[in-house]
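User: Sequence in, structure out. Go.
Assistant: Echoing your sequence, followed by the structure tokens.
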Amino acid sequence: METNNLDITKSSGKKVKFSLEKLRISIMRTGADKETVDQIIDKVRDELYQGISTKEIYNRAFALLKKKKHCFASKYKLKKAIYELGPTGFPFENFIAAIYKYSGYKTEVGKTLQCKCVSHEIDVIAHKDDNTTIMECKFHSEQGLNCNVKIPLYIAARFKDVHDYWHSKPHKSNLTEGWVVTNTRFTEDALKYGQCAGLNLLSWDYPKNNGLKDRIDRLGLYPITVSTLLSKREKQFLLSREVVLCRELLHDNFYLDHLGISDVRKEKILNEISQLCIIENN
């Protein structure tokens, strides 16, 4: 099918022009070889129609990748897998803390700090060398919802309150950065205000080439929700035990025994997760 003038429907309901190149890039990110990518592109293109939803395109590509190799499908569903960390934001906070932990930081989650005006519960506190970073995590469990300017406005005020009190008292480290982290995207106004206010912003694809998806791929720190072999109930059980990374499940695979998973299925699950982590480490 000719795709130059094809409109597709995003999860927000907005119509945009279909980009074959964007689809190709998203499939290539899975580590699939060129022949596999070309085959999937050809099959998906043959099934496109005017107004098709991005969800339908995703589901078709995902199914084809899963037939080829489970770990390809796991990487392809990364964005959806992060939404599956919900419905509360706590697993997402643990996930962000885990990313920083494996980047050399000592982290704390959900700690309350006494500040100049009032006390604040901080989602993630990260320490490295003599510096401390505080982060507010804004998790959305539904696609199509972005962080507007109200979020960095609110976080900037909180950061100032924490910062002023922190530096009025003796501390072992300097409070150097305030971050706003989201699993979706920031609006243009939110980006402008955050930058102007001196906040660091991290979203699904911001900063360019160093957004959340880029860091996860680069570090190989995939959430357990990417697994195509674990059931929803099993994933929730693991998340309730604060096992949020595939890498952690490799070390703590006794949780699979608690779930009553057979040895044969356990081997398949661990093999899927091992391949996923190894791909990024090579």
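User: And one key feature?
Assistant: The chain has three domains: 7-68, 90-219, 223-281.
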